[in-house]
Design brief:
The complex is a heterodimer of chains A (223) and B (393). Chain A is of the alpha+beta class. Chain A contains 8 helices and 9 strands. By secondary structure, chain B is α/β, with parallel strands linked by helices. Classes of the chains: A alpha+beta (223), B alpha/beta (393).
């Protein structure tokens, strides 16, 4: 899955000469937390609402008027992060997610070869992508199919569903496992009544869980 | 319990809504249910009477379905080549094409519209369109055994003829995605669906965050229940949520989809209700409707695939509560004699399940805790929207 498919295009950006008051207003109005800072068409930094708040004089010691004046007169360049991580539009969301975890950051500007900002990828965009992958694509029932980690097993299961029963598989996920360990394919099938599909898979030697193979979810806990 | 004027909309012709002899959506269940209601003396031609359905008009169907879809169903009903049927959700194992499909589905839709007419014109306070409840039908697509949406057609009829607000309650074990989708941006129709979580069960939707769109934001409510949820946890949610939402929304009439496939014996779901759920929930809905909207409730059938052992009993209990009649617990011999020969399994002797029939679910505590969290999450998100921001919350 490519970053360009999941990023927010043409995000709100600021220049280093904008004031902190501008930055704060934009994050509030647009309900965003991160603003890429662009100078001369090139990414030069990033500022978050938290960076601005951290830079602000304390509410305990300073009168409000002084705080307002501080926000108005301080340029974004004074608080922005300049060692900014960015990513390209053709990188994968998986890589972006890893980078965000490693650097503990909430958003990555997406830049082209010249450093121009094309988009921004936030934590929420990454989560949305994973929710979509894990969820059903169409009206469907979810089955878990346990199978040996051997060439041809997955194909055999799919043939039972598709060729024997003519039921459409609308999504399929097989999380990686250790070698030789049983693998569990999570399959969404396009039917309200998966009983025949389950019976045929079981007859072909597969273990099938509906709702799940997890013993905690089988029969409400009968292992 | 006092008697309430109530109509059972029924004619044996509606059993023509039948896909294949071995299809799980088996109309035999309707004959079983109606004959049990009759055998128990719960229709008398007076306050509790049977009324024949009528056919929905084309305009009534077009209020909730696209012209292209209606034309496609007509074409395939008449035997047109099946190529391209998949685009409309037809010709699948779930919803195969059968001859006369358009006419019979228009009759099923008309049955629920007839129920709405009787209630909205004040001829009865409540009505039961037992063949209705096709909650998976979308504006331009059939799905999950449902061709046209009788429910949406009846709601649209009420909105057009009488105005006012409609509250749709759906406790079929599957999410009422079709009705929700058709009224997703409409604040005058509030949909509330309680069902086994779409995480596991068809159609895979109906999560708490599906709250509606545009002007209708806050008027689509969903409670996804854990698989293996039992009566107590499920009823606890109905008792807390249904009156609360009804009193906040103040509808003019309630539509109740009473699919009974959440019963422990149902082969298509993992919920673990007993017959008590159906009797109690109908009571909760009717009592709230008595306080809020003159008692007006239009109930329909819906899912229910334990055709012999569950559906007749569950829907007899629904009818009993709707019409304000105590349902005797013993099933008459004449009814058992009439059907046992054909039944593939032993028919139960009582209308209500006995406590000892129920095998407790080992993981009950965690299931109940998860359901409570789901309910609280929905209340936090939806009730302020229904009541207006910040009012009384």
């Amino acid at each position: 899955m490519l970053v360009k498919k999941r990023m927010t295009h043409d995000p709100v950006v600021v220049s280093p000469r904008h004031s902190l008051a501008d930055a704060l207003r934009l994050t509030r109005e647009r309900r965003i937390r991160h603003l890429p800072v662009v100078d001369d068409g090139v990414l030069v930094g990033i500022v978050s609402d938290r960076d601005v708040r951290t830079a602000m004089p304390s509410t305990l010691t300073e009168p409000d008027a002084e705080r307002v004046a501080f926000l108005d007169r301080t340029p974004i360049s004074a608080v922005m992060r300049t060692d900014v991580d960015s990513i390209g539009p053709l990188d994968t969301v998986e890589d972006a997610a890893k980078l965000m975890r490693r650097r503990r950051i909430g958003a990555l500007p997406v830049v082209d070869a010249h450093g121009a900002v094309l988009g921004i990828l936030s934590e929420s965009d990454v989560l949305d992508a994973f929710v979509e992958i894990l969820g059903p694509a169409n009206a469907s029932s979810r089955l878990e199919i346990g199978m040996a980690d051997r060439a041809g097993e997955l194909a055999r299961a799919m043939r039972v569903i598709g060729e024997e029963l003519h039921v459409n598989v609308c999504s399929l996920m097989v999380p990686p496992g250790k070698p030789d360990e049983r693998r569990v394919a999570i399959v969404h099938v396009n039917t309200i009544d998966p009983r025949e599909t389950i019976a045929a898979l079981e007859a072909a030697g597969f273990e099938v869980g509906w709702p799940s193979l997890e013993s905690d979810l089988r029969q409400g806990g009968f292992a | 319990m006092s008697r309430v004027p109530c109509a059972l909309v029924w004619d044996p012709a509606v059993t023509g809504y039948k896909f294949r002899p071995d299809h799980p959506f088996n109309p035999r269940r309707l004959e079983l249910a109606v004959s049990l209601i009759e055998a128990l003396g719960l229709v008398d031609g007076g306050l509790a009477k049977t009324v024949a359905p009528r056919t929905a008009t084309e305009a009534e169907l077009l209020a909730v379905h696209s012209r292209e879809y209606l034309d496609a169903v007509r074409r395939f009903s008449g035997g047109a080549d099946k190529a391209g049927a998949g685009r409309w959700g037809l010709g699948t194992d779930d919803t195969p094409i059968f001859s006369g499909m358009h006419d019979i589905t228009a009759l099923v839709s008309g049955a629920t519209i007839r129920a709405a007419e009787l209630v909205m014109r004040g001829e009865v306070t409540r009505a039961f369109s037992i063949c209705g409840g096709l909650h998976h039908a979308h504006r331009d697509r059939a799905s999950g055994f449902c061709v046209y949406s009788d429910l949406a057609a009846a709601i649209a009829w009420i909105r057009r003829e009488h105005g006012g607000k409609v509250m749709y309650i759906d406790y079929d074990a599957h999410h009422g995605d079709g009705v929700q989708g058709i009224f997703y941006d409409d604040p005058d129709v509030l949909t509330l669906s309680l069902h086994e979580s779409g995480r596991y069960l068809f159609p895979g939707t109906g999560f708490v965050d599906e709250l509606g769109d545009g002007d209708g934001y806050g008027y689509s409510l969903n409670v996804p229940l854990e698989p293996f949820t039992e009566d107590d946890s499920w009823l606890d949610i109905h008792r807390k949520l249904i009156p609360e939402v009804m009193e906040a929304y103040r509808p003019d009439v309630v539509i109740l989809q009473s699919g009974c496939d959440g019963h422990a014996l149902d082969p298509l779901t993992h919920l673990r209700a007993s017959t008590k759920l159906y009797e109690e929930t109908t009571r909760i809905v009717c009592e709230a409707a008595d306080r809020v909207c003159g008692g007006r409730v239009i109930a329909t059938g819906g899912g229910g695939y334990a055709v012999w052992k569950v559906v007749p009993r569950a829907w007899t209990l629904v009818w009993g509560v709707l019409s304000g009649q105590e349902v005797p617990n013993r099933i008459p011999h004449e009814w058992l004699n009439r059907w046992q020969g054909e039944a593939p399994e032993m028919l139960p002797p009582h209308v209500r399940d006995a406590e000892e029939d129920h095998r407790p679910v080992p993981r009950r505590q965690e299931i109940e805790a998860t359901n409570r969290r789901t309910l609280e999450s929905l209340r936090r998100q939806a009730l302020p929207l229904i009541r207006g921001w910040g009012l009384g919350f």
